[in-house]
Amino acid sequence: MTEIDPLETARALIRRPSVTPADEGALDVLEGTLAGLGFACRRLKFEDVDNLFARVGDSGPHLCFAGHTDVVPPGDESAWALPPFAAEVEDGKLWGRGAADMKGAIAAFAAAASRAIAKGAVKGSVSFLITGDEEGAAVNGTKKMLGWLTEQKIAIDHCLVGEPSNPDAMGDMIKVGRRGSINCWLTVKGRQGHVAYPHRAQNPIPALLRKLLYLSETPLDEGYERFQPSSLQVTDIHIGNPAHNVIPEKATARFNIRFNPTWTGASIDAWLRETLNALAVETGAEYDLETIVSGEAFLTTDMEFLTLLADCVHAKTGRKPEFSTSGGTSDARFIKDYAPVAEFGLVGATMHQTDEHVAVGDIATLTDIYETVIAQYFKRFSAKK
Predict the structure, then answer these.
(1) What would the pLDDT profile of 82-94 be if each residue is shown by its tens digit?
(2) Which domains, from first to last, does the chain contain?
(3) Using an 8 Å Cβ cutoff, are 51 and 145 in contact?
(4) Taking Cα atoms as reference points, which of 111, 94, 115, 82 lies closest to residue 347?
(5) Residue 1's pLDDT band (boundaries 50, 70, 90)?
(6) Which one of 154, 158, 170, 263 has the fewest CB atoms closer than 10 angstroms to its CB?
(7) What positions carry a catalytic annotation?
(8) Does the pTM exceed 0.70?
(9) Which residues does 190 contact at the CB level (< 8 Å), separation at least 6?
(10) What is the pLDDT of residues 209-244, one digit of tens each?
């Protein structure tokens, strides 16, 4: 069996411009690589999203690596120092969209798996759960794949997600949970009229602004173990009024709340409506509120698994990683309902930016870490099966 080169595999993946939900052959590259290692591969397409589940071994314990081959758009390609999908190596760095988030990590885990298999370290099962819509709606990827695994009676014991978890240097951080997220649209209703006759109209804008100011200045909580305080941020105010002499009939704002486990999506929705009902009485303005919960807050508490990861990271980097819940959401929010999950990948300082890049040495280090994780995982957990 030929050992996988993580750098060249990452370059091959980056050269496929798989902007969500397009695949452009990225999963073909990964499937071909894994099939050559003896993985049984299954492509799963839901609507317009292509996904891959690949597994070697048919017994427990089952360690799953989860990730995504889709990437965000590159933006103005002329603003890049090097073409975003050329996967050039220059100045000791791999440049390209997806280098950090997260094709580099996928390549590193494939290379680590090839080494572990060759050394006979896999005493159970290793799998890849790779989606094509993590950067998009996240409706037809990991969530539906997990449902399919349940139908197939395939159980995952632990999952490692390859998101770029390190802020500045390899070994900085392991993500052990995520805040929940709720997107909100608040519309205040008024009565249209001429600005010269405000007594004949009802301007919804002041009422909307008072509501937003109250919501944004009211502390939601004081934080939670390993979590910062929940945060409400206004992201848009839309009036859509083309005339300077007309009081509009409605005004809409959009805001997002990132919440810790003090709340659930349902409880924070209830708090919003109770608060807005009271403010509506005060301002005399009717309102509509629409909310969508895109993820619940969670915290992984399987310390045996987390300590194993941290020890492997420390062994290869000399750093003791922080257990953190910072950042946005990831597909770990779905996986946590099926198995203990943690996130560790490359340095994410340039993810989603122009000139996204990672150090070539970091890809090698991550491969070493992942190989150590696989070996130590089966030493630790095979005895329990």
Answers:
(1) 999 999 999 999 9
(2) 6-178+297-384 (3.40.630.10), 180-295 (3.30.70.360)
(3) yes
(4) 94
(5) low
(6) 154
(7) 70, 134
(8) yes
(9) 201, 202, 203, 204, 205, 207, 247, 248, 249, 250, 251, 285
(10) 999 999 999 999 999 989 999 999 999 999 999 999
